[in-house]
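Quarterly update, task 2.4: 1-deoxynojirimycin-bound model.
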Amino acid sequence: MKITSPSLDSTLTVSVTILIHLRPFTPQKSPKITEILDQLTISPDSMIFLHNEFRNCNQTPFCKRARSRKPGACPLVAIDVSISNGDLVAKLIPKEKSEENTENGENPIKPLVLTISAYQDGIMRLKIDEDQNLSPRKKRFEVPDVIVPDFVNKKLWLQRLKEEENEEGIFSVVYLSDGYEGVIRRDPFEVFVRESGKNGKKVLSLNSNGLFDFEQLRDKKEENEEWEERFRSHTDTRPYGPQSISFDVSFYDADFVYGIPEHATSLALKPTRGPGVEDSEPYRLFNLDVFEYIHDSPFGLYGSIPFMVSHGKSKGSSGFFWLNAAEMQIDVMGPGWNNESVLMLPSDQKRVDTLWMSEAGVVDAFFFIGPGPKDVVRQYTSVTGKSALPQLFATAYHQCRWNYRDEEDVYNVDSKFDEHDIPYDVLWLDIEHTDGKKYFTWDRMLFPNPEEMQNKLAAKGRRMVTIVDPHIKRDESYYIHKEASEKGYYVKDATGKDFDGWCWPGSSSYLDMVNPEIRSWWAEKFSCKNYVGSTPSLYIWNDMNEPSVFNGPEKINFIRLLIMNLILIEILEVMLISARDLSVVTMPRDALHYGDVEHRELHNAYGYYFHMATADGLVKRGDGKDRPFVLSRAFFPGSQRYGAVWTGDNSAEWDHLRVSVPMILTLGLTGISFSGADVGGFFGNPDTELLVRWYQLGAYYPFFRAHAHHDTKRREPWLFGIDLVQERNTELMKEAIHVRYMLLPYFYTLFREANASGIPVARPLWMEFPADEKTFSNDEAFMVGNSLLVQGIFTQRAKHVSVYLPGEQPWYDMKTGTAYEGGATHKLTVLEDSIPAFQRAGTIIPRKDRFRRSSTQMENDPYTLVIALNSSMAAEGELYVDDGKSFEFQQGAFIHRRFTFSNGKLTSSKMGTATGGNNKFASECTVERIILLGLSPAPKNALVKPANQKVDVEWGPLLLRGGKGKSFLTIRKPNVRIADDWTIKLS
Ligand code: NOJ
């Protein structure tokens, strides 16, 4: 993860390097360009360039300043600590008023206002801002629309303050929850959560290392570099001067910290500072359209969630969330990072220190006490919201490519799936389906009858998705642009003009989605009437919403223009424009949004608002009766309420397959359950082995979609049938997709769990086995729910794989039914036909084993229950079913069953939920097979009650297709309905 420091290449050299790296390009390039490109080869330098393409901490003034601060540098002390309106309030002032404590000698540091609030479920909120009574230059930006209204109602009314004094100073203490207290130390100021009592152990703390700093907005008294910021040839004005905030946060009794997506890196975050870490960048949170990201790097990708979870063997988990949408950089300090420091921190508690730095905003931070990993996720999602429940179809397999060319291509792909007996649910259309990249339009030469096309697919129970990006082509004949510019709906540049940047359509402007009025206007565009050519079975893909601006300051995006297949003249023209624009730049940090908010203050939330508006549009289109499906590339805390996200433009490389696991697990930990990576890899051509392995792993991603760049070879699963060996690959991909369809009832039940509790579908092993240290840094295997463990195969021609199976109970191979001991590492032979997946003993997994064309056609199919017994011959599991599409489930229209097996009896009972299951949803579906793993001795028959019917217990296969010979005890056709209460007693 070492990032080499950049040399500032000249613009032209840089662009040529990109040209080299990105070869081959498009069919439409001019002969001249082809010639140039053909003479160039990929050089290692181009990779170095990719590292250097983005701004690093040293080139980012606030980050550089914060990183250079020494422990104990914070001069602030807390005064006037009291209780007011149910909160603890205090002022922060410099201890000694001196020349050092003024900025420029003329801008004295004014007192800051600190507020601590307590909320139910063990959540403490800390706010620090400038004092509004002292007339700051403007109100600093606080991100609206992220905290869910329910959370606000969970506020506890703090009554009293307890004062304590010891050799370390004076402390004010408030009640937080049973067993925990919130504490503020006066001098030096420090805020922490501890276990109750004077000597209670610390859980989480802020400013224990004295690195807190808060740059206040200032009046411009003189011209100097503080009022602007340069990156390469780009300059951003800073009309309020530097306004960054930074502080240290310590996680006690923690072995590792996790979270803060999005980075292509390990699940357990590696230290970025401290002994043995040379020259690493901090983890950057800055939503960026990163071209060809590298697989192990702290650079920020498309989305940002400033939420970190700690975990350790002795204490469990805690969490820290900073609601702030400006660029953030976060350092994870390795042990010994502050050996030189004179500060005394508790030495008997293991600790992970972190440094949080943000360019702007306020401190609005949440401390979550845990103590288990699931508690922390529950607490975090009680603030930012639970995952939306997707429609059933969206949890099935999606087929995407940039691009399916025309209607004929669509029909052909669709029918090939049927011909090869491969199920799929959704076919996607990328940007080329539009008329000149004007979203909500169709290229009518290629797609003359879009409604008919969607209806034909819908008749088979399939849906389509089209892409709608946030850049709006500045074309007077385009109705969206016309209306948006007339209404003044675009983001403005610093001079107040509509901001004009380059993206796929060329010159584009960007809707100011932070404004609720503009969001409602946008939402209306999705009605079938307004979106001409759309039907109710069409759903939406929001891409490029970081927002991506090709000629932006972060990188030399001529590359994008090349991808846009511009001819040489256009490229040269654009290069000239861009060369000029590099000094004026597009979507700069000083661009202006609704309410005079600078882009720098809300950058990371832009894509979130766009996603929100689009999802609202689909809800409105369906008159509140159809759950939306919107995939977004950019994300922010709360995005889970609006739809799915994917990990962007990965590459067809084994390392990218591997990193997809920690990336998806991290998203889940930070609230975004519905995520996936492009199966097959977006860039490049995977060989068939990699492609097969990707399907085998992707079948367990919460969001399962194959996607590819337009310059790659076609790779739909049936395209490998040139000979018998190759046909086998098609078979393997098909089998992988079948596994997903078979497990849809289990996945859907898990999506409902995420919707109700925030607990993600895909989970790190330590979420299920929090006391097992061997799981803490394992990010090659993961849990799907609490019952399935999946181990990826990430190397070519792998012969063996080591799989660690945690816990004391055995695990059953999903395919063969073979039992493996828990709490042990097993060296297994790698098979070509599947990746290792195991059912945990003590669980029951619901499946649907009949294979259809799409999930829609499986609606009335009967279920199979797979019961994996633990050493006490017991097991339990759940099944959640609803209509798969509407919001009726919120009114209780669902079936939610609990299955328990003990003493030789399987019982189906209603899950005790407060709101639901009150017979508003009916299903005639039955259970057709019950497979018992690990049962002895073998029973002969079973008695079904209340029907009082005897059924035989037979030996049967574990899987109807692709299983391995062995037989297992099976109750066939017990004919019980999943909606009913029943028991089946073995005898
Ligand atoms: C970038 C996205 O990440 C990719 O998935 C998409 O195919 C292209 N944009 C074109 O829309």
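Highlight for this quarter: The CA atoms of residues 926 and 977 lie 4 Å apart.
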